[in-house]
Amino acid sequence: MTECTHCEERVKFKARERHQQVICNVYIDGAWDRVEHFHEPCYADAGMPFGEPVD
User: Fold this and answer.
1) Entry pTM
2) pLDDT of 4-41, one tens digit each?
C-alpha cells in the first residue's frame, strides 16, 4: 500500500482505470533517500515540490 505524500490517502493502481500518479525518487547529497508518491492533482496542489513531471 502506498499513500499520497500530500493528502495521505491511498494511491491505488487499477488495471482498467487510467489514474495518473507522480512518483518521485528523492536524493539527498547525491544519494537516494526515499520514494514519494502523489496523485497527479495533489502534486500540482503541493506546488510541484520536485519540479515538472516527466513522462
Assistant:
1) 0.79
2) 999 999 887 665 656 688 999 999 999 999 999 999 99
Which triple of cell numbers denotes residue 26? 528523492
Residue matched to cell numbers 536524493: 27
Task: For residue 1, give the C-alpha cell.
Answer: 500500500
The owner of cell 502534486 is 43
pLDDT of residue 44: 94
DSSP collapsed to 3 states, 35-46: EEEEEHHHHHHC
The beta strands (E) that lie in the chain are given as 2-3, 10-11, 21-28, 31-39
First to last CA, the chain: 23
